[in-house]
Amino acid sequence: LPATHLYDGAEEIPNPLDQNYENQLQLMGYAYDTRQLAPGEPLAVTLYWRALPDVREGYRVQLQLLDAAFP
Questions:
Q1: For 40-62, how does the pLDDT look when each residue is reduced to its tens digit (9 = 90+)?
Q2: Cα(4)–Cα(53) distance, integer angstroms
């Protein structure tokens, strides 16, 4: 399931963010498949990350999706 490609800046990030994580990583934005899914169908999500100059360790990303009813 994991897929990786380098973001070259040529494509526009559909949902831009500027989320800094301890001056080591920056979440620049995300994209996802907007079609309506049936239960059990996979959802394609792309996260756009940038490693900042102070990155000192390896990281693993976990994505959790919640429905609108989640408090």
A1: 888 889 899 988 887 888 888 88
A2: 20
